[in-house]
TrEMBL record:
Coiled coil region boundaries: none
PANTHER family: 3-OXOACYL-(ACYL-CARRIER-PROTEIN) REDUCTASE, NADPH-DEPENDENT REDUCTASE BACG
Originating organism: Acinetobacter apis
Name recorded for this polypeptide: NAD(P)-dependent dehydrogenase, short-chain alcohol dehydrogenase family
Domain of life of the native organism: Bacteria
InterPro entries: NAD(P)-bd_dom_sf, SDR, SDR_fam
A family per Pfam: adh_short
Family per similarity comment: Belongs to the short-chain dehydrogenases/reductases (SDR) family.
Length: 264
């Protein structure tokens, strides 16, 4: 089944690796033109080389950009519009979690977490909304975490910031109704990443395979599907919510946690 995005233009922040890069691949495979950004020039270059090999005919644009830098994001948005003449989908995917308990979290840590989780979305939304509202299928889709509704005490600052982002997403979905721009999000559980790969390399028992190692982690955490998610799984959920297939969906979430969600 097609996502009905051929000829459309999508923007992915944090698109150089992981879920972001997996999302870029899905979008290009469906015929969309894609712009993505990342903070690391090295990772950005690696992603460009990979995409060129996979999609030699693909139309894309990239920029080294810190989404917390308003001026850089505004320049990125302007350049994307100049390149493609339209923007239909914005997918916000930036910001890792902070591991710390209440007593371990300093005042500045709380501020930093809110800034990262909030302004990594606010800056792109402000920069791209003038272009999105010109589209007849405009949408914003945010990558959020299950922590937004199921907080963890060892990630207290991130959990609070994620809850705030969920609230913001719902508020934007109401406000942007008048611009005909839908706003949704996904709630992530534990997904394979470079961070997990680094931990795997440092494992005590080097004879244990990646599948065995990650399954043990999933079982220990109580994930019903007994494995970590693969980047392409949340990527497909993101593209669905962004696409016209979800045209009657706004202010909503898709849980991508392998059944770890304990809430209805």
């Amino acid at each position: 089944m097609s996502f009905q995005i051929s000829g459309k233009v999508a923007v992915v922040t944090g698109g150089s690796s992981g879920i972001g890069l997996a999302t870029v691949k899905v979008l290009l495979s469906e015929g969309a033109s894609v712009a993505w950004c990342g903070r690391s020039q090295n990772k950005l270059t690696d992603s460009i080389n990979e995409i060129r090999e996979l999609f030699p005919e693909g139309k894309f644009f990239t920029a080294c950009c810190d989404v917390l830098n308003k001026a850089e994001v505004e320049a990125f948005a302007s350049n994307v519009y100049e390149q493609f003449g339209q923007v239909d989908f914005l997918i916000n995917n930036a910001g890792q979690g902070r591991v710390s308990s209440f007593h371990e979290t300093k005042d500045q840590d709380w501020i930093d977490e809110i800034q990262l989780k909030y302004f990594s979305v606010l800056n792109p939304v402000k920069a791209f909304i003038p272009y999105l509202e010109k589209s007849d299928v405009g949408s914003i889709t945010n990558v959020n975490s299950l922590l937004a509704i199921q907080p963890e005490e060892h990630m207290i600052a991130t959990s609070a910031a994620r809850a705030a982002l969920l609230n913001l997403t719902h508020s934007l979905s109401r406000e942007f109704l008048h611009q005909n721009v839908r706003v949704n999000s996904i709630l992530l559980g534990m997904v394979e990443s470079d961070q997990w790969r680094r931990r795997f390399k440092e494992r005590d028992d080097q004879s244990v395979t990646w599948e065995e190692w990650t399954k043990k982690i999933a079982q220990k955490r109580g994930i019903p599907l007994q494995r970590l998610g693969k980047p392409e799984e949340p990527a497909h959920a993101l593209v669905f919510l962004a696409s016209p297939l979800a045209s009657y969906t706004t202010g909503s979430v898709i849980d991508v946690s392998g059944g770890f969600n304990r809430h209805i």
